[in-house]
Each structure stands twice: as C-alpha cells, then as structure tokens.
Amino acid sequence: MATSKTTAAEKRRLILDAAVRVFARQGFHTCRVSDIADEAGVAYGLVYHYFRSKDEVLDTLFRDRWSLMTALIEDVDGRDMPTRDKLRQITSFIFDSYRHDPELMKVIIVEVTRAANSFGQTHLQEIRGAYEGIARIVEHGQERGEIRGDVTSQFAAMAFYGAIEQVLTSWIFELLPFGEAEAEQAKTLIVETICGGLDARSA
Amino acid sequence: MATSKTTAAEKRRLILDAAVRVFARQGFHTCRVSDIADEAGVAYGLVYHYFRSKDEVLDTLFRDRWSLMTALIEDVDGRDMPTRDKLRQITSFIFDSYRHDPELMKVIIVEVTRAANSFGQTHLQEIRGAYEGIARIVEHGQERGEIRGDVTSQFAAMAFYGAIEQVLTSWIFELLPFGEAEAEQAKTLIVETICGGLDARSA
Amino acid sequence: MATSKTTAAEKRRLILDAAVRVFARQGFHTCRVSDIADEAGVAYGLVYHYFRSKDEVLDTLFRDRWSLMTALIEDVDGRDMPTRDKLRQITSFIFDSYRHDPELMKVIIVEVTRAANSFGQTHLQEIRGAYEGIARIVEHGQERGEIRGDVTSQFAAMAFYGAIEQVLTSWIFELLPFGEAEAEQAKTLIVETICGGLDARSA
Amino acid sequence: MATSKTTAAEKRRLILDAAVRVFARQGFHTCRVSDIADEAGVAYGLVYHYFRSKDEVLDTLFRDRWSLMTALIEDVDGRDMPTRDKLRQITSFIFDSYRHDPELMKVIIVEVTRAANSFGQTHLQEIRGAYEGIARIVEHGQERGEIRGDVTSQFAAMAFYGAIEQVLTSWIFELLPFGEAEAEQAKTLIVETICGGLDARSA
DNA sequence: TATGAATGAGGCTTCATTCAT
DNA sequence: TATGAATGAAGCCTCATTCAT
C-alpha cells in the first residue's frame, strides 16, 4: 500500500526514461511529444507538467549526465596518479556509461554533443567545460614532464576527446562492433593510441 | 550576347553556392527553401527545377565534396611514401578544404557528418568509405612495420578521423582560434599526436 | 482560535478579490486559473470548490456589482426629484464605484460590458435591464415635461450610458487623466452635456 | 479569358471579405483560421501567404476602415460649416458605414474598438487619433462661440463618440431595432441629444 | 526555363477542468 | 475543505512541395 503509489519524482523519472528510449529510437526532431507520453504511458499534458518544453526534456537528460562527467574530470585531475591513468579513468567512465546505458549516451552524443548547430549551441559552455578540464589534466601532465610540451594542451584535449567520441559514434551506428570485450579493449586502445602514438617503436 | 546569358549549369551552381551560405549561416533545418532562392536571387520554384527537394541540395553539396576526399584517400594510399606522410596528406587536404571554403566544410561537418541521425544515416555508407580508406592506409603501414600492430587499423582510423573532425568543430564553433597559422600548425599537431603520441619521450 | 480560522465565505471572498486584481492586470482570457489561485494564495483546485468554472468567477463579479446598479436605478427612479438629479445620481454612483474600486470596474467594463461577443452575450439581459431602467427615468421625465419628447427614451438612455462608459474607458486606458477632481467634475460634465447639450445658449 | 482570372489582390480581398463574415458570425477569438479559409474557399495556408497572422487580418480590416474615418474627421474639420453640421457629418458617415456593411462595422466595434483590453491596446493610438480629431472640431466650435466653453473639448468628444458607439452596439446586439429609417433618424437624434441636450426648453 | 501563388499536413503548446487523496 | 497531479482537446503557424502560366 505504501509503496504502490508512484511519487511525483518517480513520474518525472518515468517520463525522462521514456524520452531516452524515444529520442534514441526516432531522434529528437523526428519524435513528437505525444510519442514520449505514449512511451511513458501518461497523458500528453503531463509532460508539460514536469517540463517546460520538449527541449527542456533533452536539456535535463544532457545536463544530468554531462555534469557527472565534468565532475569526474575535476575529480580525476586532483588525484595523484600518472597522466596516462587519469586519461584512462576518463575513457573508462565514458565507455562504461555507454555500456550501462547506450540509449542515453546515444541521445547525448547524437542529439546534443554532435548536433552542435542546434542543441549543441545551447550547451556549448557546458561542453567546453569538459574540454577545458581535460586540457588542464594534460597541462599538469606537461608540468610534471609526462606529456610532451610541443602539443598544446587544448589541442591534445580535442584529439583525445574527438577520438573517444568517434569511437562511440562508430558503435552507435554500427560501424564498429560493440560488446563488453570491445568496450574494455577500447579503453586501452584509446590511451595507447593517444598517449603512445601509432608509430611502431624500435625499442 | 553569347556570354551575357547564364547557362543552366551556372544557375545550378548559383543555387548551390547560395545554399552553402544559407546552410552555414542558419543551419539546414532552420532555413527555408525560399531563403536559398532569395540568397541566390532566383525565384522560389526554380530551386525545384534543379533539385528534386531541399534534401537533394544538401546531398549534392555533401557528395561533391566528400567524393573528393575519398578519391584523395585512395590516391594517397597508392603512393609510395611513409604512412605518416600519407596521414599528413589527408590531414592537409581536410584542413586546407576548411581554409579555402569554411562555409562548405561547416555545412558538411555540422549538417551531415555530425548529424548522424538525419543526413548522416543517408550517407553512412559514403562516410564509412572514407573511414575504410584510412583504415587501409593504416593496415598497409602495419604491414610495412611503420605502424604498431596492437591497435586495430579500424580503431586507429577512427581515432585519427575523430581527432581531425573535433579540431574542425572547435574552429567552427570558435572553441579554438582559427587562422592560416593555426591551420598549418594543426596539420603537424594531428600527425604528431596520433602517430607520435602524447607521451614525453626520454630519447 | 475561533477567529484565526478563515471561514468558507471568507475564502470565497479571498478568491474573488484576487480574481479582480488578476483580471484587471492581465485580462480574463490571458490569465489562467492558476494565476487567480496564486494571487489568492490558495491551491489550484480550490477555485473549483467555490466556483463551477473560471467563467463563473467573472459572472459572480459582474452580477454582484451590476445588481447594485440596477437596484440603484430602480431606487432613483422612484424618488421624487428632478430628472436631471436622477441622472446625476446614477452618474455619481458609477463614477464613485470606479473611484472606490477601479480594478473591479475595469473588469466589468472591459471584460463584460464591452466584451459583448463573449461575456456580454451571457449577460445581455441584465445589461439591458439597466438600460431599460434609465429609459424609464427618461420617460418619466418626459411625462413630467422635464425632458424633450422628440428623442425616444431608449435612445436617450443609450446616449447617456454610452457617454458614461466612454469616459470610464478613457480613464481605464489613460486617454483622459483620472483623479478625485476629475471624477467629481465628470459627474457635472456628463449631466451638463447630456441634459444641457453642447450648444452655446444665448441666454 | 482576360477577366476569368482572379488576381492576387482579388484573392487577398476574397480572404478579407470572408474574414469579415466569419468574425462577425463567430467572433474573432472563437473562430479558427481554417474557418476563414473555408469561408473564402481557399486553402488554409493561403491565408498565411497574404497575412502574417490571424491578428494581421483583423488589423487590416480595422485599419482600412478606421483610416477612412479619421480622414473624414480631418476633412470635415477643415470645412466651413456650423459645428453641429460637422458633428452630423461624422455621425452620418458612421451610421451609413453600418448600413452599408454592418458585418464589418460589427467586427470593428466589437472586436477592436470595444475590445480595448486585447486588440484595442494595439490600436489605441489610432483610436485616440479619431477622438482627438473630434475634440479639435469641438474646440474650433468653442472658439467660434457655437459650443459652450465649460465642457472640455476632450470630454465632449468622448460623450459624442460614446453615444454613437453605444447606439451601434444596440443595433448590433438588437437592443434597439435597426433599419433604414432608424439609421437615418438616429443621425438627427445623436446631434439633437448631444448638441441640443435632453432638457425640455421653454422657448 | 522561370515564376510565385496555392496547397495542406504536421506538431508544439496552453490551460480549463477533473479527480484521487 | 484542501491539494495539485493528471487529462486531453484545440488551434496557430510553418514550410516543403506542387502546379498553372
């Protein structure tokens, strides 16, 4: 009796979860608000009870998730560990996020991060925040002599993040096969590629 | 008399060029067909004489440009030069393309390549073709012992292309400063980062 | 304890008073039921405990006030005084009403009396009642030889009431300045204009 | 052949005329844009080809008509005739307008002039212009000694216009009977009432 | 080839009202 | 009495596309 009722927060969550599925399936622009409501099993208007607009639903999904990442980046930066490991932590976090909730990640990548011209513009500052956090990690690595100094930290951050996002995109659109093993292996490959470089070493 | 008339092909070109400016400025979804016509200084319906639909205008812009890149990748792959130089050739081509026609490149990146859910889907095979071409170059590099073998060629291609696209996106949305010097320097940085790796070397 | 509780009637009054402020500020159609509730500091649904609908709130405001006027008109008609004074009594009542509660009068004029296509229709009979009351006063004036007989009483009533309402409207929309003095002066001017006429008299 | 085609201007007119009928019948807020299109026998979107919005249709109807009235007021003011005749000219113009096109006048009065809180606000300045024109006529009458000086010209203008509008409203809502004869008689009655006054004169 | 008037489907949002607690 | 979550109908506007000339 006590637990049989859905609270307001749960209903809100219900709608957000439904939105993830619908956005992932049909795309943000292609889906209608009624699709979200139907998927959530609630009335049309209820979406507008909890969110100001269709945009705000996506906003919420993005911000909730993205803030976790920027927080992680900040956290990792403060830790006492080799820069390589820091970058691996970030890679792990992102790839694990995809493993745990590929639909949500698809939405964030496809509809926000990579849709820079429409929705991305709105969140450019938040996105930039993550890039800057990564750049700071690189910078600290350079100060500690772990990272070469002839590549600017900002450029390095872009290359690193760009590589990660491209891999995610490959998985999303099935250009590369995805699975537990692939995800795990990719963590190593990203760090090996970006930190170690593609060149074959004589040593 | 003979030269005062614009030929059909020229009119078509006029519309395509106008479309680039309008798509770059307003985005594909935000602009109307009439905006293209206005920008081109032609009548509304004429766009439909030369193109089946608004989509086809963007399709044309993308294909015309993208085919040049896949052609270049094929061409470069066949040349007898170090893999590093091959990758640099590709990087050069892309960054020079942006330098010469930033609006067109913006449209292709923002509206097609990174709009994977809408136009990207349509052109997925063509886009994949470029990735595969790059992967082949990496593979040949591995065969020749220039590229390490513990990173799969497809993964390496993604990291490489992802880094490039992320840099382009940074320029487009002014997350990184752009200019002649930056573009030139970026060619080196991409290759240094991806091939050389970010690690500081003792040697 | 006994006095700290608001009675039902008081709550109802609270809502009505809030409605006046909200209707006056935003207009009946532009405001939402929740605006009224917010203004009254009560819960959304409570408005529906005391009123069947949003319409009924306005209906109530109108009827409560308008009935006072028709009552006054009846009352005045029965008094033994010159017709001019009767008309002045009515003018006084209306202008004083505006002075005492300009927001309520604004609502009644703007949202009911002058909104003939929506609420006016509903209350047409009640509104007509007032016109007829005034017409009767004119008629009695004609019978007593105080009012010229070549203007029909109904027409005279319309001219009289129309002039009053136009002055009210002018105040409401600040086409004419309003204040204590202006309100007082207007009472005389209305009667002088309508009864005395605008013509300059030689006498 | 030459006359069988409807020109663009005629189509626009077609829509405006249909709008008058629909607005008069259902009221501006109650009718849908599709009602206008249906009444005009054109496609939904065509209304938006000729007008920016539903509002603009009403705007156009109002402005086209109202400008005629302000023009007339200006014109009449410049003529060399007794003030009484000037006011009669204005009254004639308005009542004739109603006689010729009662639906259009109903729309203007009910949906704009008297709907001061919604649409009226938009046109307040234009409406005010007419009042001021009438006030100027009264003022000139006062200067020439034809109109009493103890009633301000602005107040007199309000009383005069208010009386007219109230009569129109009475006809519109059938509070007073309307016909050729009534309209003609009303012209005299308005002037007699406002200029002559309701008082019975001993002379 | 060229024009631009004409078409009409589609979707977001608002908000009065109901109802379970 | 009191609350506010839940419902869902209704309508304006956009704009890609067609078509008659």
Automatic annotation (TrEMBL), chains A, B, C, D:
Location of the HTH tetR-type domain: 9-69
Pfam families (alphabetical): TetR_C_29, TetR_N
Keywords annotated in UniProt: DNA-binding, Transcription, Transcription regulation
InterPro entries reported in the protein's UniProt record: Homeodomain-like_sf, HTH-type_TetR-like_transc_reg, HTH_TetR, NicS_C, Tet_transcr_reg_TetR-rel_C_sf
DNA-binding region, residues: 32-51
SUPFAM superfamilies linked: Homeodomain-like, Tetracyclin repressor-like, C-terminal domain
GO molecular function: DNA-binding transcription factor activity; transcription cis-regulatory region binding
Claim: Cytoplasm is one of the keywords in the record: no
PROSITE patterns in the cross-refs: HTH_TETR_2 (PS50977)
Name by which UniProt lists this protein: TetR/AcrR family transcriptional regulator
UniProt organism field: Paraconexibacter algicola
